[in-house]
Amino acid sequence: MKKYLAIGLIIIGLLGLSGGGISTNDGSTLVGGVSNNVGTGIPITNQTADINISSAVTQQIIPATSSKVNYITHIHIIVGGASNVSIVYGTGSNCASSQQTIDGPLPLTASTGYSAGSGVGAVLVIPSGQAVCITSSSAVQLGGAVSWTTY
Q1: C-alpha to C-alpha distance for 103 and 114, rounded to whole angstroms
Q2: By the 8 A CB rule, do 73 and 119 touch?
Q3: Do residues 59 and 146 lie in contact, with contact meaning Cβ atoms separated by under 8 Å?
Q4: Tens-level pLDDT at each residue, the chain (151 residues)
Q5: CB-CB neighbours of 32 under 10 Å
Q6: Fewer beta carbons below 10 Å: N end or C end of the chain?
Q7: CATH numbers and ranges of domains, the chain
Q8: At 4, which helix (H) or strand (E)?
């Protein structure tokens, strides 16, 4: 039993789950290891925003960053009625310029949803200078949350 406890504590220490990890200059925390003798890390959530849309629209959920990359670590969406939902990125108000779809369209029916990620590790990587938006094809309630980190 002691052997398994020791192994578990070693793993926790290696992952940085005991409060360690790799800190970045902007306060983000990463867990991880070494790749090609360079410290690398897995993004961990440090920001979360509510998703609340009730019309057929494209709405910004994560603001653009000028020189940093946004890493979405978790997202979940539930719809109140049928809608095609897409996660997009772009510039300008509500991603109106240079819009690119990164996930979707997701054909969701009433009371169904979409979920990706646990908050540890990126599920979607957004290029620097791009905001993240959700596009809904129908005027139905769409709710959820998105979590991300930026570095």
Answers
A1: 11
A2: yes
A3: no
A4: 444 434 443 344 444 444 444 445 555 555 554 344 444 578 888 999 999 999 999 999 999 988 899 999 999 999 999 999 999 999 999 999 999 999 999 999 999 999 999 999 999 999 999 999 999 999 999 999 999 999 8
A5: 17
A6: N
A7: 1-41 (no CATH), 45-150 (2.60.120)
A8: helix 2-15
Residue 138, number of CB atoms within 10 A of its CB:
16
Joined together, the tokens standing for residue 41 give 């890390």
Number of helices (H) and strands (E), helices first, in the chain?
Answer: 1, 14
Return the amino acid letter for 75. I
Lookup: tokens for 82: 């049928």
pTM equals 0.75
